[in-house]
Design a protein that fits this description.
387 residues, eight-stranded mixed beta sheet, 51% helix, Spore Coat Polysaccharide Biosynthesis Protein SpsA, Chain A, alpha/beta
Length: 387
């Protein structure tokens, strides 16, 4: 009986979270009277750009060039770089730019800190009211900063997310399904922000927020961007996506690397759920988006396991369960077929969407178990790019 109940709930949650909720947002956005337009600040606000870098010599120079070549006036920018016990040339590269750009400050940490500690150390040192937190591997376009600051002309906006565009897509791995998934997430978050100012979590590679909203992130936390986002919402401010603020990133293509990253993010998700669960019981639009977009997806793997057990148990009871059992068998077959095809240099990209969905939900489940087992450190290795 319990499995049957979980089966029904899991089916509803799966359809609602991945299909009904996104289409509902699209419908409500179309019904909105007028599109959101952000006024342009007559006097451009000064920006403090914070970068935490660990062994980023391959991308750091290009990253800093993309900032300095921006259309944003250099005299309105300061850059704070935290070099986190790098064993490569990251510190030398950062210090080279410090010598060329007076408002660039480099902080070299001899012992490994992790991104959270670097952010907690550098944000209070920032001189300006708007903070741009960005990763070394995420590149700016000429217009990124100009567009990113525009929504802050509204004093009720506390955090603004960028829109990520991927390059380096390949058919040899999971970059296409991963990029497709993220593109869908951008549309959902854009709608949440425009409708209710309740965008559920920025793209961690680059977003901006008001310094006065910042609270030190618990050092054992794994997902800093969602924490900062929810702190802004707790303080009564709006969080939005600025679709015109484009940033560029080389998307991950390796399934195993992305699988490990998703495990870490999943553990961090549950840390944030433990911290911000009271927001679910405000019974407002924040509660609605938090539950519909995030919490349901975080707990869905538990229901998927229950659904699998129910199908295995009932496979001979009706044609319905026989059909589901057949579909279930196709999942391991998909992994085998993909493996054999890759051995022959044949890349079935459409098959990778199935593999990506299944793998990421398994990662979510493992991350949940790791959260319950206790997280002792937030230090992690940056995802390898340029694969």
């Amino acid at each position: 009986m319990l499995l049957q109940i979980l089966f029904v709930l899991g089916s509803v949650f799966l359809l609602y979270s991945y299909l009904i909720y996104p289409f509902l947002l699209k419908y409500l956005l179309q019904k909105q009277q007028a599109p959101t337009a952000y006024a342009t600040n007559e006097a451009l606000p000064a920006l403090s750009i914070v970068i935490a870098a660990h062994n980023e010599e391959k991308v750091l120079r290009e990253k800093l060039d993309s900032i300095l070549q921006s259309a944003y006036p250099q005299e309105r920018i300061e850059i704070l770089i935290g070099i986190d016990a790098s064993s490569d040339l990251s510190a030398l590269i950062a210090e080279e730019y410090q010598s060329k750009f007076a408002a660039c400050q480099v902080f070299v940490f001899k012992e490994r800190q992790g991104k959270i500690k670097i952010v907690n150390a550098l944000v209070p040192r920032a001189q300006h009211a708007l903070i741009v937190l960005t990763d070394a591997n995420v590149l700016f376009t000429e217009q990124t900063l100009l567009q990113l600051q525009a929504p802050f002309s509204d004093p009720q906006i506390g955090l603004v997310d960028t829109t990520m565009k991927h390059y380096g897509l390949k058919n040899t791995g999971i970059s296409v399904p991963e990029s497709t998934y993220i593109a869908g997430e951008v549309l959902i978050k854009e709608a949440e922000g425009k409708l209710w100012g309740a965008m559920m979590g920025p793209f961690g590679g680059c977003f901006a927020f008001r310094k006065r909203c910042f609270e030190p992130i618990p050092e054992h936390f794994l997902v800093d961007d969602f924490y900062i986002n929810m702190i802004c919402i707790e303080k009564g401010l709006r969080c939005v996506t600025q679709t015109e603020a484009i940033v560029l990133e080389d998307v991950s293509n390796d399934l195993l690397i992305e699988f490990k990253r998703k495990i870490r993010i999943s553990s961090g998700n549950f840390q944030n759920l433990r911290r911000f669960w009271p927001l679910l019981f405000k019974f407002n639009w924040v509660s609605f988006t938090f539950f519909s977009h995030k919490v349901l997806r975080w707990i869905l793997p538990v229901f998927l396991v229950a659904m699998t057990l129910q199908i295995l148990q009932k496979q001979d009871s009706s044609w319905f369960y026989q059909l589901l059992y057949f579909i279930l068998l196709l999942i391991p077959i998909s992994f085998i077929v993909d493996y054999m095809a890759r051995k022959r240099d044949i890349h079935l990209v459409w098959l990778r969407f199935v593999i990506h969905f299944v793998s990421m939900n398994i990662a979510l489940l493992i991350g949940m178990f790791r959260f319950f087992g206790g997280i002792r450190s937030s230090v992690w290795q940056p995802t390898k790019r340029h694969q």
